[in-house]
Amino acid sequence: MSQTTKKVKVLNNNKFDVGVKIDIGAPRSFSIKSKSFAYLQEDEVLFLDSSCRLFRDGFLRIEDAEVKESMGQVEENPNDVTDEEIEQLLTGNIKKMEKELKLLTALHAKNRVIEKAKELDLTAGKLKVIKEVLGVDVFEVVSEEII
């Protein structure tokens, strides 16, 4: 069986670094810096997917459809969103926004939505949906930071 040599771009869209430990071949540990990426071998990506939840929980993202399929990711992960996708969601249709926000399960993904909501001039209706779905009043979060 030949070893896979395909390089896969692994993105970290979060505001924090994500530590990675790979225990195949020559074991190594490193961090993928905030808003950055690293190239990993396909077999390393598959190892990480089988040994931890970094991809399933949306901490790390890959865009290679073939590798995603190998990992069993046939549907998009709601916790794996870019800042641009969050902004489109928050500035788009309120019903779709509510539906998509309800799919978020990871705290880091919810926090990214809240951070983006603080930057945008959202309607009272959208702020109410965020408060109901995520349990956070964006106005309270903003005022606490000012104090």
Number of strands: 5
In spatial order, strands of the major sheet run 4-1-5
Counted by DSSP, the helix tally is 7
Strand content: 15-25%
Care to describe what's here?
A three-stranded antiparallel beta sheet has the order 4-1-5. The chain has a two-stranded antiparallel sheet with strand order 2-3. The longest helix is centred in the last third of the chain and has 13 residues, at 107-119. It is α+β, with helices and mostly antiparallel strands and 147 residues long. It folds into two domains: 7-70, no CATH class; 83-146, no CATH class. A hairpin with a 5-residue loop joins strand 2 and strand 3. The protein is 46% helix and 16% strand.
What tags apply to this protein structure?
147 residues, alpha+beta, 7 helices, 46% helix, elongated
Task: Please render the helix and strand layout as text.
Layout: E1 7-12, E2 18-22, E3 28-32, E4 36-41, H1 42-51, E5 61-62, H2 65-70, H3 83-91, H4 94-103, H5 107-119, H6 124-134, H7 138-146
Antiparallel strand pairs: 1-4, 1-5, 2-3
Helix pairs in contact: 3-5, 4-6
Describe the structure concisely for a colleague.
The protein is of the alpha+beta class and 147 residues long. It contains seven helices and five strands, in the order E-E-E-E-H-E-H-H-H-H-H-H.
